[in-house]
Design brief:
This protein has about 450 residues and is an alpha/beta fold. It is about 40% helix and about 15% strand. The chain has 16 helices and 13 strands. A hairpin with a 6-residue loop joins strand 11 and strand 12.
Length: about 450
């Protein structure tokens, strides 16, 4: 099961399971999400597009720090600014002036932003947005689509029926520890189906505080869908919240909302907005945000100057380097090359999705076999120095060296998968355990 290449990682994970319930702090970092036994579990260093694991192996990080890295690890500009900030102090007994400077920058960039609040991560930013929507409307119910973190308000969806989150997160999540009194307060709606949303809004007429969704991740929404969602939310008197935590500023300085041409009432950002330093923000229209001044939404580390400084410098560098254009160009080229290769070697996979976040879509009907093939892909790519899922989370440090090394690895791995499928021997090619807990993202 355990590959000697990653013996230290796997041994440490054994110890972790005795000490850390769940083994990791984030489900997406669990070894079971990659090729368990072969993928690295612990990183000790990152630089540019690459990470080094506990066993000393080097990888291109195609998961980009689970989307938290957009400029690359240890970006010299961001890190110099952070180090300079550290030398000045980071958590004062009064506010940091950077709060206002960053607010002005966000208001300039993001179409819906007239006022802002900060957090330390995506889930707590989503929770702040939900509190603001509930406070501003005086209503309790949230209609949501997609993944929005671990907090009670969201997991409450699985109190009414334990299958609610199956399509939005993954099956089998028991809302253990979530107060039963929250049942019926968070209700999922399916992506891309305006009638289903209209029906839910009608069913809960006058009770819905917010319609919250990831506008899109790696594929464009159906034509006109987001505009219809916005209209439906408006007609129902509900706050429209876009969760842009994962998409971030990969689609441009105005985020996914500007790319899609639909402006929500509130939007949530985190992850890549600060290039890996802990930070999050809720931004939105003055009318919706202003009531937050009367709500108790308060935390010591939300004004921590490391996150503020990192976010401020990241926004400026994203604009100065025109990173969104670079990512689109890089992703388009990568998709074309991967698709050409897949055709040449007869592997049933398409490198699809938006070029800013290419996805490997294996055309395999049987879900068990598909999961095995995905695990085999992750396993074999890891052995060739490419860490990640069956997708390419882009960052600006990835260049021709990463592209060519990855294509060289693919030129061995895709034929192996093609042969495995043809000879029906995929399970025999697996050293790793097949992937578990696959995030079934409803929003692509
Ligand atoms: C769309 C979306 N919202 C919220 C979150 C939660 O963010 P965090 O893990 O920083 O709490 C994530 C994390 O993956 C996300 O993708």
């Amino acid at each position: 099961m355990s590959d000697p290449r990653v013996a230290k990682s796997n041994a440490l994970y054994e110890r972790a399971q005795q000490l850390i319930p769940g083994g990791t702090q984030l489900v997406s970092r669990r070894p079971s999400r990659f090729a368990h036994g072969v993928s690295p579990v612990y990183a000790v260093r990152g630089q540019g597009a690459r990470i080094w694991d506990l066993d000393g192996n080097e990888y291109i990080d195609w998961a980009s720090g689970i989307l938290a890295i957009i400029l690359g690890y240890c970006d010299p500009v961001i890190d110099a600014a952070v180090v300079e900030q550290v030398s000045r102090g980071v958590n004062f007994s009064i506010s940091s002036d950077l709060e206002v400077e960053l607010a002005e920058e966000l208001v300039r960039c993001i179409p819906c932003a007239e006022m802002v609040r900060y957090t330390k991560g995506g889930g707590d930013a989503c929770t702040v947005a939900v509190r603001i929507a509930r406070g501003a409307t005086g209503r309790d119910k949230i209609l949501f689509c997609g993944y929005h973190g671990w907090h009670d308000w969201y997991l409450a969806a699985n109190l009414a029926t334990d299958a609610s989150l199956n399509a939005h997160l993954f099956p089998g999540i028991e809302p253990i520890g979530v107060p039963k009194a929250l049942a019926g307060t968070a209700i999922p709606f399916p992506y891309g189906d305006p009638q289903a949303l209209a029906d839910l809004l009608e069913q809960h007429r006058g009770e819905v505080a917010a319609v919250m969704l990831e506008p899109f991740r790696s594929a464009l929404p159906p034509e006109g869908y987001l505009a219809t969602v916005a209209q439906l939310a408006r007609d129902a008197g509900a706050v429209l919240i876009f969760d842009e935590v994962s998409s971030g500023l990969r689609f441009g300085m105005g985020g996914a909302q500007q790319f899609a041409g639909v402006t929500p009432d509130l939007a949530v950002f985190a992850k890549s907005m600060s290039n890996g330093y802990a930070f999050g923000a809720v931004v939105g229209r003055r009318e919706v945000m202003e009531p937050a001044g009367r709500m108790f939404i308060s935390s010591t580390y939300w004004s921590d100057a490391i996150g503020l400084r990192a976010a401020l410098e990241t926004l400026r560098e994203l604009r100065r380097r025109d990173v969104a254009t670079q990512l689109a160009r890089f992703g388009t080229d990568l998709q074309q090359r991967v698709n050409t290769l897949a055709q040449q070697v007869g592997c049933p996979v398409e490198c699809g999705g938006l070029p800013q976040y290419p996805q490997l879509l294996f055309q395999i009907a049987d879900p068990t076999l598909k999961a095995q093939v995905v695990t085999l892909y992750i396993q074999e790519m890891a052995r060739r120095g490419c860490h990640g899922y069956a997708s390419f989370a882009l960052n600006a440090a990835q260049g021709l060296a990463e592209r060519d090394q990855t294509l060289a690895a693919l030129s061995q791995v895709l034929p192996l998968i093609a042969r495995g499928l043809e000879e029906r021997i995929i399970p025999h090619l697996l050293t790793a355990r097949p992937q578990a807990e696959v995030f079934r993202r409803l929003v692509n």
